Amino acid sequence: MDWVYRGFETSLLGLALCLGLAACLTFGTARLSGDTLSITLPMLTVTAPAH
């Protein structure tokens, strides 16, 4: 049963690493114009065109 927890923990660490790398690579990119709808949570941002 210990391998289940280790696998889950490893997958979460891998996901955190990928998200951190993606955040670093997109840091400084141009922001979308003001006609968009944006929802920001503590660890997640979702942006979509406003209709």
Give a verbal description of the structure.
With 51 residues, this protein is an alpha+beta fold. It is 49% helix and 24% strand. Strand 1 (36-41) and strand 2 (44-49) form a beta hairpin.
Strand content: 15-25%
Cross-sheet strand order for the largest sheet:
1-2
Q: What is the overall shape?
A: elongated
Structural class: alpha+beta
Global mean pLDDT: 76
Care to count the β-strands?
Answer: 2
Q: Count the DSSP helices.
A: 1
| Backbone CA Rg | 16 Å
Question: Separation of termini?
Answer: 49 Å
Order of helices and strands: HEE
Largest sheet: 2 strands, antiparallel
Residue stretches low in confidence (pLDDT < 50, at least 5 long) are none
Helix content: 40-55%
Protein name: Lipoprotein
Organism: Methylobacterium longum
Layout of helices and strands:
Layout: H1 2-26, E1 36-41, E2 44-49
Antiparallel strand pairs: 1-2
Protein name: Lipoprotein
